[in-house]
Every structure is written in C-alpha cells, then in structure tokens.
Specification:
heterodimer, A: Glutaredoxin, 4-stranded mixed sheet, 56% helix, elongated, B: alpha/beta, Glutaredoxin, Rossmann fold, 5 domains, 5-stranded mixed sheet, 4-stranded parallel sheet, 24 helices, binds flavin mononucleotide, binds FE2/S2 (inorganic) cluster
C-alpha cells in the first residue's frame, strides 16, 4: 500500500516537471486504489497526499493557481465520493491541504483566505476558524482583516455570478440603470443571491474594460455595450442553461 | 499578428477569431510566410477586435471570425487590403490603411506603451528583440547604482501613480535610509474606476515593468520586490507570472543577475479589492497581512516600509519608463514634455467619446488635442460639456479649459489632478451634481473608516448632494458643502480623504449654475436626476416594438405590438430602463418646465 502511494506521488511529481507553468492536467489520485478495498487508511493516505501535492506545488511555484486546486480536488472528490459519502469531511481535509500548503505566518493570512475562497467560493465560519487556529490568530482578527476587503464573501454564491461594473466610465454610460434593471429583474439587491440560488449579483468598481462601457461580467465572460433589455435577455438565457 | 486582449470582446470570441485566422492561413498554405500571433492591448479598444499585419502595419478593425478568410486571401494572395475592414476616417470618409496614419495613433507619442500591441507578452524573445533588457545590461555593466539614480533624477521623471513625486529623489531617499534589506514595490492596484492603463501594460508588456523594477532595485540596493496587483486583473497576474518565470530562466531575475553579484527577485501579491490599498502605507499594511489602514506619514515608506525596512513604491508606468530613459539617456527624455513635467502621460479616454481607448501623449498637449484630435470628440452630435480627470481624487474641467496644456502644475491649479490618468469625457446629458454624488458614494464606501473627517465628513457631503438631487436642496447647502470640503481636505489622514472633496469643489466651481437650477428651479438641466424629470414617449418615433414594454419593471408602459406606446405616469418610477433600452430613441425626458407645458396642453 505504502509503496503504491509513494509511486503515485512520484508520478504526479513528474507531471509537474512537464508543466513548468504549474497547471496540472492529469488526474492525480488513482481511483482504483480505493475501489479495490474499502480502506480508511488508504483514504486518509489519498487525502494526505493531495495535501502534500498542493504543498509541493506551492513550494515549487510559490503559488497555487485556481486550476491546481481544482484539479487536485476534482480527482480527490472523484476518488472518494463513491466510498466516502461524508462530503464535509472531504472538504475539511481539502481545507487543511490548502491551508497547510502555505507557510505558517500571520502575514500569509490574505493569501490563505484567497486560496480557500478560490476553492470553496466563500469563507464559512468553520474555514475561518481553522485558518485562525493555524495562524495563531483570534477568529476576530481573521474576520476583521477579511471584511476589510471586498473580495471575500461569507455566503455560498449562486450558480451564476453576475458582476456589474459600477466604475465611472460605465456609470456615465448608464451602468447605474443597468444595475437597477438587473436588481429589479432578479428581485435582489447587489451583493445578494436569488432564492433559487441561480444568480449572485455583484458590482465591482471598474473591470478594466471601460471602452466597452457599460460592461457586465456573467460568470467569466464579459459583455460590453449592454442595454438593459439585452442584459435581461442574457439573464434569461443564462437561466435556461445556454450561457 | 492578431490582438488577443479581452478588451476586444469576451474571451470565447477572441479564441474563435484566432482559430479562424490560423485555419485560413493553413487553408491557403501560407503557414511558412504568415504567423498568427497575439499581442496585448493596442489601445484603440473602440475599434476592436483589431488585427494588424506587421511589418507593414495594415490596420484592420472590428474583425469577426468570419472575416479571417477574406483577410488572408485578399491581403496575402491578392496583395490588396480588405477595404471594408480598414479604419474609416469619420470626417473625410476615406479609408486609412496604415496603422501610423490613423489619427488616433498619428497624434500620439508612445514611449511607455512602446511595445503594447507589437509584441507577444508571453514571449521574452519578442521583448528582447525589441531591445528589451539592454537597459538592464547597460545599468549593471556601465553604471554604478548612484549613477543610475543620477540619470533618473536628471531625466525629471515624476511618479505616475498620482502624486507626481520625483522618482529619482524617492530612490535616493530609499538608498540613503539605514536598514537592510531594502524593498521595492510596484503599485499595480489601479483602483481608480475608469482607468485601465496599468492593466494594459501588465498584460501587453510585462517585461518592461520587470526590467524597470530590476534597474530600480540595483540603484537602491534592494534585494526583494513585490508587485501588488488588483484582484480583478487575473490575466495581468498570469502574464506577469509567466514573464517573471522567463526572466528567471534568462537570468535577469534571481541570484547573480547576468553573472554579477547583484541578486533580486520579485514576488507577486494579489490584492483583495480595496481602493484605499493603492495608498502606499495601506498597501504596505496589506502586504503584511493586515487590514489596509493607512498610517500618517512621515515616516515615509522610504524610511520604514514593508517589515519596517526602507521601501520604495512606484507605479507600473513609472517602472515601465525607466528602461527607456536608461537606453536613450536622461537628456533625450527631459527634452520631451514641459518645464515642470517631463516625458509623456498615458490617459484612458472613456465616456462620451468617439475613440475610447488608451493613449499616450507628451506633457503639454492640450485637452482639446487629446479629446478632439485623438479622441475624435463627442459622438452622436451631443455637445462636449466637461472632462473628469484623476478619478475620485480629481475634478471636472469645463469646456472653457479645453486649451489648457496638460501637466502636473496646470492640473493642480485648475483644482483637479492628473492622477493615474483616467479621462472621462462628459456631454450635455451628464449631470454634474450626480457625478459628484457618484464619486462621494464611491469614497464613502471605500473609506477605511479610521479617521473621522473622511468617514463622517464625506458621508455628510454625500447626504447633502443626495438632497439636492432629490430636489430638496437649499441655497445654504452650497456653503455648507464648501465648508465641509475644506475640513475634510485639511484634516483627513491619507490621500483618500484629502482629495475626496475635489469632484465636489470643481463641479461647484465650474458648474455652479447646474447646482443652482437643481436647488432653485428644482430642475436638472442634463435631465438625469430621477426626482426632477418625467418620461414620455415621442409618438412620432415609437415603432411599437414592445422592447420598453418588456423591460419596464413596474409595468408602467401601455401599448400593444405595432401600436404607439404610452407611459402611465402613476406607475412610472423614472428608473430610465426603458429609455436605455429603446432602439429608436423614442423615449424622451421632460424637465420641470417641459412638464408644466405638457400639463397645460
Ligand atoms: C487613495 C489613494 C489611492 C491610490 N491609488 C493608487 C493606484 O491605484 N496606483 C498607484 O500607482 N498609486 C496610487 N496611489 C498613489 C500611491 O500612494 C503612491 O503615491 C504611488 O504609488 C507612488 O508611485 P509613483 O512615485 O510612481 O507615483 C494612491 C494614493 C491614494 C491616496
Ligand atoms: S468603468 Fe466599467 S470597466 Fe472601467
């Protein structure tokens, strides 16, 4: 068992070397390894090795990209979900992996919060508590830093992320009317999530594409020169599934 | 040969364009002669997606994936340009083939943006073949650190981050400060809404910033650099990361750079979204993992910065200029610009302007040249009203100041600032009171809350303006606003609060009439303030398309398809959604006098 685990890790290490930019395209955790026998030790091993993989990437490239975390967790979830139904525990281990990948310094607080949010999409009380324990800070301190920055969220976002620009260039081209239209159409205010958890509406001050004003980002796609009627159509289309 | 920045459209569209160009090249068996490559932003975002054929510089605008075949076939096989995709001069109606002759580019002088749009930002070879990293070699081999600082001092380079402090002076302070190690920070937190030049440089020419940072580090004896990039700029972070990797491989970064005993490395730090973190002391706090609260200066960061060590913070553009100065000499650089401001300035032209995009001009160019000659003026036949510069810390300048040569001094005298270089052009549909209110709202949200003048004062000013916009203002409010503005300006802790009243003060100074009509006549001349206008439908223009009917959130629009629509004034909340949606511009706004007339009829 042990040897196979080591072998697995070796393989994955080689994968990194082929990928100097640090993006991992290969599935890192071997599914068969646990399909054979329902073995908690093995499961622990897999989780632990994922954490270590994350740490290795962190050490090697000095950062964890969104893609890296995603790849590790996808393969982890795939490998474990059949045999290990308690998802929260997996989450917790992933969380540990992400947190422990960064050096244990209070000054790393913001990068850790960012990495955690990158994966979980928001910061739950549990995650912040774990981070505070790891960094020897009080929960209060973690919360006070996190809430200073607009990037961090404390509630699970909806399926689709609608980001409206409220920057000046967009404002003078009617960005405020666009926001009004979106708020009324979705029946929520900026910063909130619709009841069916389909949409989360947000504003940012300038997305850096002011020439396209007024600009709206739906998931990762930027739409420029939008009229309210067009935005509403886009929202309807997104809701139906074809974004 | 193809442009690849998100600014030409959303990403999937860009990929499609690239794919179809590559396919077209293959189709015509031209893959030996024609290479499809992508570059960063060309600056002329209005005309995107842009394709430029180098080396001759044929400039194609609004290229769609389906045009790829036509370009390749006609341009390369028949050797004639695809006319319908060329830039068309709005005045003369002529097609212009060459990049350099397009008025937008012709009137610019591109020094900081020298490589943007010409090289592939993800290939260090491209940068090197344009003369990149020569300045670094020159500095390390031919100059002593102090000589580098001398050269920068002589060039008259001033920081492009807003305050315009002499870069050479800052570097020499940092060098002289006791304490090791020293740090340098590149400020790429571009928080000014409406400015995107730092992002464009990082995305289009990251190596110039890296080279500038290495030279700066050498001059100051710093061993570690940070770059603090805004969270909203993931592409910039990615490109910069690739660039630092490549620089490391080529031994421009890391231990013993170019086999000298000078070592330096750069760490990328992603901001987490807070405008105030652009302020240097707040930025330092943020890098150290704390809340981004500014602290009073002095001590300046050049004495105690990150981890309490001497730190020099400079803007992206400042660093990107450094290699050029070293290459071409301080004398050459200082011959450009005006007495008090040397070199060139980058502006992000946006708002009500025909050619929006990124431009670079000499200091001393007048606003008129920037807005009309390069920017092409205000579109749709509206009248130019003013220009807002410097973002939330800047001010609004009226048409009477159009002939003002732009430099640090003139801008400061007029009550605005150059800031990071955002220029938002306004036409007569923009209400100045509302704009001032918008900026105060922004500051109020972004204020860190540490000092009272900024936290409470700005809120109070915001409330007054809101009252005026709602038609409840009194004449005394204007005096009160000015008094509050003075206090906030004087007593705030950091630059955020100290400059926050600028938009209010300049609009009161140059557009006092507009405030007065809001207060006395209860009317908004630009017809923007919702409480002071009513909407109506011009029956002559309405085609009965039902778009407004569908988009009205309060169902205030009555009418069937093909019939003229009308607005039910009792249900209408003046949100303006119908007006913004109407394709035939049939929705009109009435101010107070016009309303009375309609009632009389
Ligand atoms: C509220 C506030 C926001 C600022 N935002 C930025 C910014 O986004 N980018 C920047 O380079 N400088 C910004 N500055 C200026 C910095 O404090 C600092 O002066 C600048 O980075 C110095 O670089 P320079 O010498 O190259 O101009 C800001 C200042 C204040 C007060
Ligand atoms: S102001 Fe909206 S993208 Fe810049």
């Amino acid at each position: 068992m042990e040897s196979q685990k080591t072998k697995n890790r070796k393989e994955s290490e080689e994968d990194f070397d082929d990928n100097p930019t640090g993006s991992m395209s290969t599935v890192l955790v071997d599914k068969e390894e646990i399909d054979d026998h329902f073995d908690y030790e093995a499961i622990d091993g897999i989780i632990e090795s994922s954490g270590r993989i994350l740490k290795e990437i962190q050490n090697k490239y000095n950062y964890l990209s969104k893609n890296d975390i995603k790849q590790v967790t996808i393969s982890l979830n795939e490998a474990l979900s059949d045999v290990f139904p308690i998802l929260e525990e997996i989450d917790e281990r992933i969380l540990e992996g992400i947190i422990f990948a960064k050096e244990r310094k209070a000054t790393n607080l913001i990068p850790i919060l960012q990495a955690v949010q990158e994966h979980f999409d928001y910061l739950s009380k549990m995650t912040m508590k774990r981070i505070s324990e790891y960094l020897d800070l009080s929960l209060n301190e973690v919360y006070s830093v996190a809430t200073f920055y607009t990037q961090f969220k404390y509630e699970k976002p909806g399926e689709h992320q609608i980001t409206l620009c409220s920057g000046t260039a967009c404002f003078v081209k009617g960005g405020n009317i666009l926001l009004d239209a979106a708020e009324k159409h979705l029946n929520i205010k900026s910063g909130e999530t619709t009841e069916d958890r389909m949409f989360t509406l947000e504003t940012v001050s300038c997305m850096g594409c002011c020439a396209l004003a007024p600009a709206v980002m739906i998931d990762d796609e930027i739409h420029g020169h939008l009229k309210p009627s067009k935005l509403i159509k886009l929202l309807q289309k997104t809701r139906k599934g074809g974004s | 040969m193809c442009e690849g920045l998100g600014c030409g459209g959303s990403k999937p569209g860009m990929n499609e364009l690239r794919e179809s160009l590559i396919q077209a090249v293959d189709l015509h068996n031209l893959s030996d002669d024609v290479k499809v490559d992508f570059t960063g932003c060309h600056g002329f975002c209005q005309k995107g997606p842009i394709v430029v054929i180098e080396p001759e510089g044929t400039f194609y605008t609004h290229v769609k994936p389906k045009d790829a075949n036509a370009i390749i076939k006609q341009h390369f096989i028949k050797s004639e340009p695809v006319k319908r995709l060329l830039y068309k001069d709005a005045e003369t109606g002529k097609y212009i083939q060459n990049y350099d002759e397009v008025p937008f580019y012709k009137n610019q002088q591109r020094i900081i943006l020298r490589n943007c749009g010409h090289i592939n930002p993800e290939k260090i070879e491209d940068y090197i073949s344009e003369g990149g990293y020569k300045a670094l070699q020159k500095s390390l081999c031919d100059y002593e650190p102090l000589e580098v600082i001398e050269e920068i001092k002589k060039s008259g380079l001033r920081g492009r981050g807003g305050a315009g402090f002499s870069t050479g002076m800052k570097w020499s302070f940092c060098r002289q400060s006791p304490g090791e190690p020293k740090y340098i920070i590149c400020n790429a937190d571009e928080g000014d809404p409406g400015a995107f030049m730092d992002r464009s440089i990082l995305e289009a020419d990251p190596h110039s910033v890296i080279e500038g940072m290495i030279i700066a580090a050498y001059a100051m004896g710093a061993t570690k650099g940070y770059i603090y990039v805004r969270a909203e700029y993931p592409v910039a972070v990615r490109r910069f990361r690739i660039a630092t990797e490549d620089a490391r491989i080529n031994r421009f970064l890391g231990e013993n750079i170019l086999d000298t005993n000078f070592s330096f490395d750069i760490e990328i730090y992603e901001g987490a979204g807070a405008f105030v973190c652009g302020e240097e002391t707040a930025l330092i706090a943020s890098i150290m993992g704390k809340r981004g609260n500014p602290v009073p200066r002095p001590p300046y960061p050049t004495t105690t910065g990150v981890w309490g060590k001497p730190t020099s913070i400079n803007n992206v553009k400042t660093f990107a200029t450094v290699p050029v100065i070293i290459n071409r000499g301080a004398e050459w650089y200082s011959s450009i610009g005006t007495e008090d401001s040397k070199g060139t300035a980058i502006f992000a032209l946006t708002g009500k302007i025909t050619n929006s995009g990124l431009i670079e001009v000499q200091f001393g160019t007048t606003l008129r040249e920037i807005i009309f000659d390069i920017g092409g003026g205000v579109p749709n036949g509206y009248e130019f009203k003013g220009v807002q510069t410097g973002g939330p810390s800047g001010g609004c300048l009226p048409a009477s100041l159009l002939d003002l040569p732009v430099d640090y001094k003139n801008m400061a005298q007029s009550g605005s600032i150059l800031g990071s270089g955002g220029m938002i052009v306004l036409d007569n549909n923009d209400c100045m009171v509302k704009l001032a209110n918008y900026f105060l709202n922004f500051i109020q949200e972004e204020s860190c809350g540490k000092c009272v003048p900024c936290r409470v004062g700005v809120k109070a000013m915001y409330d007054i303006l809101q009252r005026i916009i709602d038609g409840q203002g009194e004449m005394e409010d204007l005096d009160l606003l000015e008094e509050l503005a003075d206090t906030v300006k004087l007593a705030s802790l950091c630059g955020l609060g100290q400059t926050a009243p600028n938009p209010v003060l300049t609009t009161i100074k140059y557009f006092r009439d507009e405030y007065i009509s809001h207060i006395v006549d209860k009317s908004c001349p630009a017809k923007e303030c919702q409480a002071l206008i009513k909407f109506a439908i011009d029956e002559g223009l309405c085609t009965g398309c039902t778009i407004c009917f569908q988009s009205c959130p309060t169902h205030a629009i009555i009418g069937r398809k093909g019939e003229r629509h009308t607005i039910d004034p009792l249900r209408c909340t003046q949100c303006g959604i119908c007006e913004a949606s109407c394709p035939s511009k049939a929705i009109i706004k009435l101010d107070r006098c016009e309303m009375e007339k309609v009632v009389l009829v």
